[in-house]
Amino acid sequence: xxxxxxxxxxxxxxxxxxAVVPCHMWAQNYFPNIVCVSVxxxxxxxxxxxxxxxxxxxxxxxxxxxxxxxxxxxxxxSLPNTERSFTDKTAHPYDQAERYxxxxxxxxxxxxxxxxxxxxxxxxxxxxxxxNLSVALHFSQYIGCQVEQYCVFRSTDSQPYKQIGCATDTVxxxxxxxxxxxxxxxxxxxxxxGAQSLSNVVAFDAFQAESVSPSDFGVLFIDxxxxxxxxxxxxxxxxxxxxYAFSVGGVIDSVYTAGQTSFLLPKCAEIQFVAIDSCGNLIxxxxxxxxxxxxxxxxxxxxxxxTSFVSGKTEVYAMVDxxxxxxxxxxxxxxxxxxxxxxxVDDKPQNFCFFLQTILDExxxxxxxxxxxxxxxxxxxxxxSPNGDGLNDTFGPVxxxxxxxxxxxxIYDKFGNRVFATTTLTERWDGTYRGKSVKTGGYLYYxxxxxxxxxxFEKRGxxxxxx
Length: 467
Hints:
Largest sheet: 8 strands, mixed
Shape: rod-shaped
Low-confidence stretches: 1-27
Radius of gyration: 49 Å
CATH architecture of the largest domain: Sandwich
Number of helices: 2
Distance between the termini: 139 Å
CATH class of the largest domain: Mainly Beta
Number of strands: 40
CATH topology of the largest domain: Immunoglobulin-like
Helix content: under 10%
Structural class: mainly beta
Strand content: over 45%
């Protein structure tokens, strides 16, 4: 075996021209013309090259070449002029398309130009889809002569091959395969010169995609405390699945990898944690779950919390004026929870925030946080009796649930004279002016209060001094 680069000089650069010349152009004089190259249908991994000569010379011989690694390599030298075919036993048609050409020698050992080259059909590995039981066959075109039609032949479980269809391009899809059967395929090309070229054979066993359904997976925790839901899940390590997903309102969102256990989802009314098999099908799912949602209202010393659901394992957390959360006592009835503020604070704090934590059907829930404010109350009596009996002897505003930042309090007689003034919150008028008791009757007062939360209170009114 030798390289044709040594024997044929200018034939290498002529090859690009020769390869595109129609197959009938060499059918003149004694030049060989390849009719067909075809892979052995018996799966022997051999390629047969067939040619003809328009005007054969009894003394001419034939050389066969295969294109390999960028050069034409001679496979056989000086075949008798009676030969019109050659079988290449060293070819690799199951790994690649093989390309051939033929030359001839005259009696004086003069080499002819190379014939136009022909290339086999290469059927690449079948792309089997175990989800829909189909196979996609991809093959290369026959090169060297025009192809009228590519047809597909199939053998099932070693039965004889049968034509199952023809392809309009270089891809053919065979569907509705049977699980457990073995399939073999090859491509047959009908050439314009009447010859037939076969491809290599590909074979595979049809099997159904299998996924082990998760037996122990689901949601562990739904946290509704932020703008998005934080969901923690548990996964079944023995399950064979493509991944997991959430069904939100009946719509499957993106499939997450099987190793992920924490997820952020937009807030929604209902969710379901589901497992997805390798074919993208839903194979199992948790029960439909809802985030824990609460609302709250305050009236005097009582806060009423309404909740979407509650269980016997519910804890109520309170935060007072920005403090750390603490568990507080509460009365629960159906989906209503009542908290008495006086059970855990005095009458001063004004801002209260609450959230719930509960466990229901082995799923832990954390609700959203709701806040309420207790309004400051300022009470001013309309009379007092500064007679020294120890009852109602002084006069001033009474504050409830108020944190006072600044305070002004003044008393005036009917002539507009100021008889008392203070900026001390705890100081009250005892009914005297310059050390002497005032006369009974009506007096005017003015109160101005600014609370620590920035709100203010200002009031003018009258009070009666009685004995």
